[in-house]
C-alpha cells in the first residue's frame, strides 16, 4: 500500500459562504500537483475535529495556509483560531478573495493583501508562493493562560481593550497600563487580554511577555536578550544594557506586537523596553503610577464588582449550594473588600471545608467567624487602606487557611518564601528542600503542593511541567513572617539540599537551570560570602552555567549584583564585552576570558587561568601572549551593522 502523501497546503474557509469556492480551489490546486488538507475530505469521524485540525497545522510537512476570505470567514471564531495557530506554527498565510468581498481596501490590517484569483497574474503569484517553502517566522505567544478560576471583569477589561484597538479592530501603538495595589488582579487581566481573540488578531506579529518584580533590575538584560531571540530566532550579539535595548528595538521594527511588561517597580527597569518598534504596543502592570511615562493610558484595577467578587469567592463550590448562600457569600466578599487575592484565598478555605463534607452554610459561617476573630476590616472604596494594612489583611486570610494544616505542613509552606519572586520553581527543587527539612519524599511533596494549591496558597501548580509559582503577596507574607535569621537558615538548608553543583549532570534540565540561575542569590541571602566568591572565581562554574542557561547576560548579572573586588570586577566587565562571541560559540567563553585577563596585570589572574586550563574544552586555540584587548580598553562591542557608521553618540 502506498503511504499517503503528507499534506503541504491547508485550506481554511467558512461553510456558510465559502464551501463551494473552497472546493473549486482545492480541485485547482490539486491539478497543479499540491497535496491539500481540507476538513471536508480530511476529517475522520473517530476523533475530535479540532484535535485533527491542530495536528494538521502543527505538521512539519504542512507549509502553507490558504484562507478563503468571505464575510462568514471573517466572523467565524473557528477560522480565526485556525489563522492564529497557523501563524504561531510558522505557516505562510495566503488570503484569497472569496465570494461576498467587494471592497478589498476595507479589509482589516491583520489579514494582509488578498489574492484576487480572477486576475491571472495574482493566480500565478499564488501558485509560485505555494511551490516554495514557507519563509514565515513563528508568531510568538509568550503570555501565560488565564487561571482556571478567571472571572471576567468587563469594566476594566473593556476599557483597556478599547484603548488597544481602533474602530476597525486594528492595533494602536501606545503605552498602556493596568495600575493598582498588589493582589487586585492586574496580571490576571493582562493574561486574559493577551489571549483575547480580537487582541491576537490585531497584534498579528505576536504577544511578548516579561516579568520584572521588585528585584527586576537583575532581570532586565536577560529579558531583553530573550525577547530579541524570540523575535529573530537568533542569539543577540550584544550584552550591554544599551546594546540589548537597541537590538530589541531594531528587532521589533515595523511589526505589530503587544509587549507586556508585568509587575514593574522602578522606572529605570521599564525604560529599556520602551525603545524602538514604532508599531509595538506596551502594556505595563504596576503598583506605582510614578514608574509610567506621562503619556501612558492608565486603567485602574481596584476592588472587583459585587457580582465578580461573588463569582470568584464561589468558584468551584457546588452551584446549587452557592446560589442558596449568595447573600452570605456576598457578605464575606464585602468583608474581604472585593480584593481578588483575598477572595481566592478565602475560596480555597471554603472549597477545602466543603470537600471534607462540611455544608457550605457552615463553611461560610466558619470563615466569617475566623475573619471576625482576627479583626479583618473591610477594604471597600471608602476605607483608606495603606500597604501595611493590606499586608496585614493578606496575613490574616492566609492564617485562616493555615489553621487547616498541621504544624509540619505549615512549616514546609513557610519555607517556600526562600524562592525568588515571579519564577516558575521546579517541584524537584522544592522536594530537595523538603526532604532536607522535613524528610518528605517525592510523593509527599506532590501531595502537600496539591493541598496548598487547593487552598490557593500557591498561585499555580503544574504537575505536567513539574513547576509551581507563588503570588507576590503570598511570598511577601512568608518573608515578612520569617525573621532574618530564619530566612538565612532556610537558604542554608536549600543550599545543603542542592549539594555539590558538580553532581547536577543527572538532574532534570529545569532543576539544573534553576540552580545555575539562582544559587548565587541563595548564597547571598544565606550570607555565605566565601562560597559566593568561590563560585564567581570558578571557571568551571562559569562554563557549566553558560551551558545550562545559554545566557551570557545571566553570567554578567551575577557580577553586577554580587561582584566584589578587582578580580570579580574584571571578570564581569570581560563577560560584558565578550557576551556576543559566547552567545554564538559557548566554547569561546574560557579562551576569551583567559586571553583578555592576561593583559590586566591583576595578581589573581594566574590562579584563574590555571583553573581554567583544567576545565577547558580540548582542543582549544589559546593566546600565548596578552594579545586580546582587555576589558576597560574595549568598553563594548557593537555588532550587526552591515554598512559604514556615520555617527556615534555616547
Largest sheet: 5 strands, parallel
Discrete helix count: 30
- Fraction in beta strands: 5-15%
- Globally, the shape reads globular
Whole-number mean pLDDT: 87
Question: Which descriptors would you attach to this protein?
Answer:
five-stranded parallel β-sheet, 50% helix, 12 strands, single chain, 650 residues
Outline of this structure?
With 650 residues, this protein is α/β, with parallel strands linked by helices. Helix content is 50%, strand content 8%.
Secondary structure elements and their pairing?
Layout: E1 9-12, H1 19-31, E2 36-37, H2 39-42, H3 49-58, E3 64-69, H4 71-75, H5 77-88, E4 92-97, H6 120-131, H7 154-164, E5 175-179, H8 186-194, H9 197-202, E6 207-211, H10 220-232, H11 241-252, E7 258-264, H12 267-270, E8 281-286, E9 297-300, H13 306-313, H14 319-324, H15 326-335, H16 340-355, H17 360-373, H18 387-402, H19 407-414, E10 425-426, H20 427-438, H21 442-454, E11 460-462, E12 467-469, H22 472-481, H23 484-498, H24 509-525, H25 529-536, H26 539-549, H27 552-562, H28 565-584, H29 589-597, H30 605-615
Please describe what this structure looks like:
With 650 residues, the protein is of the alpha/beta class. Helix content is 50%, strand content 8%. The protein contains 30 helices and 12 strands. A 5-stranded parallel sheet has the order 6-7-8-5-9. Strands 2-1-3-4 form a 4-stranded parallel sheet, with helices on both faces. The chain has a 3-stranded antiparallel sheet with strand order 10-12-11. Helix 12 links the parallel strand 7 (258-264) and strand 8. Helix 10 (220-232) runs parallel beside helix 11 (241-252), helix 28 (565-584) packs across helix 29 and helix 29 (589-597) packs antiparallel against helix 30 (605-615). It is globular and about 75 Å long. 42% of the residues are buried.
Amino acid at each position: 500500500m502506498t503511504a499517503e502523501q503528507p499534506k503541504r497546503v491547508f485550506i481554511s474557509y467558512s461553510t456558510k459562504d465559502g464551501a463551494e469556492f473552497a472546493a473549486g480551489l482545492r480541485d485547482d490546486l490539486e491539478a497543479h500537483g499540491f497535496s491539500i488538507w481540507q476538513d471536508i475530505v480530511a476529517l475522520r469521524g473517530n476523533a475530535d475535529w479540532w484535535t485533527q485540525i491542530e495536528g494538521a497545522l502543527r505538521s512539519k510537512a504542512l507549509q502553507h495556509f490558504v484562507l478563503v476570505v468571505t464575510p462568514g470567514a471573517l466572523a467565524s471564531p473557528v477560522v480565526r483560531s485556525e489563522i492564529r495557530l497557523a501563524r504561531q506554527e510558522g505557516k505562510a498565510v495566503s488570503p484569497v478573495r472569496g465570494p461576498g468581498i467587494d471592497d478589498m481596501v476595507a479589509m482589516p490590517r491583520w489579514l494582509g493583501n488578498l489574492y484576487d484569483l480572477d486576475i491571472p497574474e495574482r493566480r500565478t503569484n499564488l501558485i509560485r508562493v505555494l511551490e516554495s517553502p514557507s519563509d514565515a517566522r513563528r508568531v510568538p505567544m509568550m503570555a501565560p493562560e488565564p487561571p482556571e478560576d478567571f472571572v471576567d471583569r468587563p469594566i476594566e477589561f473593556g476599557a483597556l481593550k478599547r484603548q488597544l484597538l481602533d474602530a476597525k479592530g486594528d492595533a494602536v501603538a501606545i503605552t498602556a497600563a493596568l495600575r493598582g495595589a498588589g493582589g487586585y488582579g492586574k496580571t490576571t487581566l493582562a493574561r486574559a487580554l493577551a489571549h483575547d481573540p480580537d487582541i491576537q488578531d490585531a497584534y498579528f506579529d505576536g504577544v511578548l511577555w516579561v516579568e520584572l518584580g521588585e528585584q527586576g533590575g537583575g532581570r532586565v538584560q536577560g529579558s531583553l536578550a530573550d525577547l530579541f531571540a524570540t523575535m529573530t530566532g537568533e542569539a543577540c550579539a550584544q550584552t550591554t544594557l544599551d546594546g540589548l535595548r537597541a537590538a530589541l528595538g531594531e528587532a521589533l521594527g515595523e511589526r505589530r506586537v503587544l509587549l507586556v511588561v508585568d509587575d514593574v517597580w522602578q522606572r529605570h527597569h521599564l525604560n529599556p523596553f520602551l525603545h524602538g518598534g514604532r508599531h509595538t504596543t506596551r502594556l505595563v502592570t504596576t503598583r506605582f503610577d510614578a514608574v509610567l511615562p506621562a503619556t501612558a493610558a492608565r486603567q485602574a484595577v481596584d476592588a472587583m464588582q459585587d457580582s465578580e467578587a461573588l463569582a470568584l469567592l464561589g468558584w468551584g463550590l457546588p452551584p446549587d449550594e452557592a446560589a442558596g448562600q449568595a447573600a452570605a457569600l456576598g457578605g464575606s466578599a464585602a468583608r474581604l473588600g472585593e480584593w481578588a487575592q483575598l477572595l481566592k484565598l478565602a475560596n480555597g478555605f471554603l472549597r477545602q471545608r466543603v470537600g471534607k463534607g462540611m455544608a457550605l452554610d457552615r463553611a461560610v459561617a466558619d470563615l466569617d467567624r475566623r475573619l471576625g476573630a482576627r479583626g479583618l476590616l473591610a477594604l471597600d472604596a471608602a476605607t483608606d487602606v495603606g500597604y501595611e494594612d493590606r499586608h496585614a489583611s493578606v496575613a490574616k486570610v492566609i492564617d485562616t487557611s493555615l489553621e487547616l494544616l498541621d504544624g509540619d505542613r505549615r512549616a514546609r509552606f513557610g519555607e517556600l518564601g526562600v524562592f525568588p519572586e515571579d519564577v516558575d520553581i521546579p517541584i524537584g527543587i522544592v522536594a530537595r528542600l523538603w526532604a532536607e527539612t522535613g524528610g518528605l519524599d517525592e510523593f509527599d511533596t506532590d501531595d502537600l503542593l496539591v493541598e496548598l494549591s487547593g487552598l490557593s496558597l500557591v498561585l499555580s501548580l503544574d504537575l505536567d511541567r513539574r513547576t509551581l509559582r507563588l503570588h507576590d503577596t503570598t511570598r511577601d507574607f512568608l518573608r515578612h513572617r520569617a525573621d532574618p535569621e530564619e530566612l538565612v537558615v532556610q537558604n542554608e538548608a536549600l543550599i545543603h539540599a542542592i549539594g555539590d553543583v558538580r553532581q547536577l549532570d543527572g538532574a532534570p534540565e529545569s532543576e539544573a537551570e534553576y540552580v545555575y540561575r539562582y544559587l548565587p542569590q541563595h548564597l547571598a541571602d544565606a550570607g555565605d560570602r566565601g562560597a559566593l566568591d568561590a563560585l564567581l572565581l570558578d571557571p568551571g562554574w562559569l562554563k557549566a552555567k553558560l551551558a545550562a542557561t545559554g545566557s551570557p547576560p545571566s553570567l554578567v548579572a551575577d557580577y553586577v549584583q554580587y561582584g566584589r573586588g578587582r578580580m570579580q570586577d574584571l571578570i564581569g566587565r570581560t563577560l560584558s564585552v565578550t557576551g556576543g562571541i559566547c552567545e554564538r560559540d559557548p566554547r569561546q567563553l574560557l579562551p576569551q576570558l583567559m586571553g583578555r585577563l592576561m593583559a590586566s596585570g591583576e595578581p589573581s589572574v594566574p590562579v584563574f587561568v590555571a583553573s581554567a586550563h583544567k576545565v577547558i574544552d580540548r582542543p582549544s586555540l589559546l593566546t600565548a601572549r596578552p594579545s586580546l584587548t582587555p576589558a576597560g580598553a574595549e568598553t563594548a562591542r557593537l555588532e550587526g551593522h552591515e554598512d559604514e557608521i556615520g555617527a556615534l553618540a555616547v
